[in-house]
Amino acid sequence: MLNRIDEKYIVEQILNLKESLGDELIILTHHYQRNEIIDIGHFRGDSFELSKKAAADKNARFIIFCGVHFMAESAEILSQSHQTVQIPDKGAGCPMADMADIVNVENAWKDVTSIIGKETITPIVYMNSDANLKAFCGRNGGIVCTSSNAQEAFYWGFDQREKIFFFPDQHLGRNTGIQMELQPEEMIVWNPKKRLGGNTQESIEEAKVFLWDGYCHVHTRFRVEHVLKMKEEYPDATIVVHPECSKEVVERADAVGSTSFIVKYVENAPSGATIIIGTEINLINRLSIENPDKTVFELYYSLCPNMFKISPRNLLWTLENIGKDNVVSVSGDIKSDARIALDRMLNLVPSVDIRIR
After folding, report:
1. Which end of the chain is less congested by CB atoms within 10 angstroms, N or C?
2. CATH number at 4-93+307-330
3. Distance CA 39, CA 7 (A)
4. How far apart are CA 90 and CA 92, in angstroms?
5. What's the pLDDT tens digit per position in 150-209?
6. What are phi and psi of 105, to 5 degrees?
7. How is the chain split into domains, by residue range?
8. Predicted confidence (pLDDT) per residue in 113-145, tens digit
């Protein structure tokens, strides 16, 4: 554990290197990062906002992504040829992204299309996924989405073909489908460990949306009993949750939307409001500090341990080895195919939220 003197020294060194590199450096920080990292970065945002920032910046030679690995991969895919993308800790992964690998997805795609045909289904992959899955979507007429634009991606997908294969987060997919007034029986879960994903040929033929059997550990910690308890204890509060939460939690919340939506919701709430949030704890704590005229706290404590792997110490080490170590690299064919799917996403207009009562 660092003492305060060590922490102060490390931050000073980071700021000195940041200043010396000037416009050649851009540090992107995800909302779930600890405050020490957020304070050091050039920009903070959700995965969609940071993807746009990575794609738009033409001057920086070095992009350091303070987030999890799939985010840094996306920045690398969208980067210019003269740019190098680094992540302070290559071990900062995502369990949900690991729930869908290219072999299982291609096998599932083969099973589904053998029944309904490739011309009837659009693959949509959540940003929380490996580069080769984004490339799979690029090759097969699909698109990437984030929680900010999942609904627009679904509309885009249905404009292309009559069905959607969505992976890896079943909850975001289901909540998006419900918002679009799809019926429960029109959305089926695909379990890659079971024959035909655990479905019948008839249900595959009738389904409109196929939902991969994946989920976020951070957001599935929130339960209906947490919502009911808070509503009883704080009847005048509003409860805001992320769409990676289960359908049952989303149905009982007062508002649901992406990380950026949650930030704006708190910022725009009237002074004196009480807002209870179901998302990652670092963001909630920061919103509480930055909005002292409001009461902001968690629906239930939920930390993303992989986001927390990014620290001032390994950020300093990365800056000291700028352009050399912890470089994120995506191979040529995967990068070009993934870029197609990401560019389609960047051309969408993001939605403000999924639902507000």
Report:
1. N
2. 3.40.50.10800
3. 13
4. 5
5. 999 999 999 999 999 999 999 999 999 999 999 989 999 999 999 999 999 999 999 999
6. -65, -45
7. 4-93+307-330, 97-216+338-356, 219-298
8. 999 999 999 999 999 999 999 999 999 999 999
